[in-house]
Amino acid sequence: MRPFKLLDPRSLDEACQMLDRYGEDVKLMSGGTAILILLRQRVFSKPYFINLKAVPGLDGIRDEPGTGLRIGALATLRAVETSPIVRQRAPLITETFRLVANVRVRNSGTLGGNLSHGDYRLDPPAPLLVLGAKAVAVSSRGRNTYELKEFFRGLFETALQPDEILTEVVVPDAPPKAGTAYFKYTSLSETDWPCLGVAALVTPSDGGGTCGELRVAVTSVAERPMLLEHLGPLARGKRLTERLLEELGDAAAERVDPIADARGSEWYKKEMVRVFVRRAVREAARRAGLAAG
Amino acid sequence: MEAMERQIRLTVNGQEHELTIRDNTLLLWLLRDDLKLVGTREGCGTGVCGACTVLLDGRPVNSCLTLAAQAAGHHVTTIEGLATNGRLHPVQEAYIEERGFQCAFCTSGFIMMTKALLDEIPNPSEEEVREYLSENICRCAGYPDILRAVQNASRKLAARGR
Ligand SMILES: Cc1cc2nc3c(=O)[nH]c(=O)nc-3n(C[C@H](O)[C@H](O)[C@H](O)COP(=O)(O)OP(=O)(O)OC[C@H]3O[C@@H](n4cnc5c(N)ncnc54)[C@H](O)[C@@H]3O)c2cc1C
Ligand code: FES
Ligand code: FES
Questions:
Q1: pLDDT digits (tens, 9 = 90+) for B79-136
Q2: Domain A61-171: which topology?
Q3: May I ask the CATH class of domain B5-81?
Q4: Which ligand has its closest atom nearest to the C-alpha of B138?
Q5: Is the confidence metric ipTM above 0.85 for this complex?
Q6: Counting atoms of ligand 3 from 1, which one is nearest the CA of B141?
Q7: Chain segment A154-166, per-residue pLDDT in tens
Q8: Is B22–A3 a contact, with Cβ atoms under 8 angstroms apart?
Q9: Cβ-Cβ contacts under 8 Å for B85 (sequence gap 6 or more)
Q10: What is the C-alpha separation between A50 and A199, in angstroms, rounded?
């Protein structure tokens, strides 16, 4: 690993000033689980890193009535997974985070590091997208809030500007009676990075029996995690029959442009999107008290 | 460029150390090369095998993906820190009794994970054991023996009243 200087800011302000001062020569470091691999493999290096773990107060998890869950960017994946408040307010997050990497990585890796890395093979973006989460970033210019659906821009590319620090993820409450589900599919070992992940949220319509709102997000398939907003209108007001589930799977597969990798070819991933969108919506509907089929 | 070294305090197996390290030193290297605690192993170096597992403030982490500078001020427990007064820890005894290893390259990682698991969930179901240890890799002993070792260790700790 090439030598570097690790800077220890005492406050968020100081961290922002360091980003301004060192510009191109500096990168943020939270848990280090993603970045240290790149450094060790010498595919990446910088003369300076900013140790965000040195900044106090960025790892809180709390529920703010009217706003939703506020999860600090420095909260570890494991802290989010095991948080009683998260389990109560957003069980979909708990369900998903349990499936990320392994306990050791989850103990070090942070939510902010996970999202900011912009890797396409991540689990957390899918549930956060269907829950309508927002990412809050801070720089010396001020505060910026990004809708998560506009946050992921491309391969290892997010909307974050070079001088911005992701400080918080805000997750609004799910609509009443919503059923949610996350399906992670791995095609190599069971605990591998996802070949693909699908999160779904379904609410029953007012009269019951039919689908009210449907939200679906897929991750690890294309170059960025995506909210498939065209699926909602296809299901609204309808019974979620097997036939409709199949149509939804097909409509999802049509929209994605998969990246072929060690976990599946383009064709394979499209086929798996078809299958897992169906399964995730069926399960979310069941949990919303809607009998599918 | 400013100095790329720093002084840190680190408590390892209950003993406090004052060390001068380079900022890019991994906890794994510090333990093995500087403190000569070579029970912690390096397998993959990328977070997937668990051979390098140590406890940081009681929680298992990959020392291969942890900067020593970020561990400063915290408590590290390695395999060398489990025995007390020359007596092996019940988890270690359980691995011996159940023959939960052959070459033992992976074993300190498995034992540290088992310790962490049983601290968190004293009487885990088989499913919980499998989930917790799912990304610790053993290339020779066989996982059923390891599973039995975990269950044995859980009984031992219960009998001892932890
Ligand atoms: C073995 C292994 C298996 C894995 N499997 C999975 C998996 O199955 N599913 C999955 O989703 N993920 C998986 N991951 C990825 C893991 O979730 C990420 O490595 C982790 O979440 C990154 O968090 P970190 O705090 O360690 O980030 P770091 O490594 O510290 O940083 C990652 C990137 O984000 C930037 N950054 C960090 N914090 C901030 C911030 N607050 N604001 C702005 N930028 C920031 C850094 O500059 C860097 O570019 C796996 C990782 C490993 C090592
Ligand atoms: S050497 Fe650290 S996980 Fe394999
Ligand atoms: S005992 Fe040899 S690798 Fe596990």
A1: 999 999 999 999 999 999 999 999 999 999 999 999 999 999 999 999 999 999 999 9
A2: 3.30.465
A3: alpha beta
A4: 3
A5: yes
A6: 1
A7: 999 999 999 999 9
A8: yes
A9: none
A10: 33
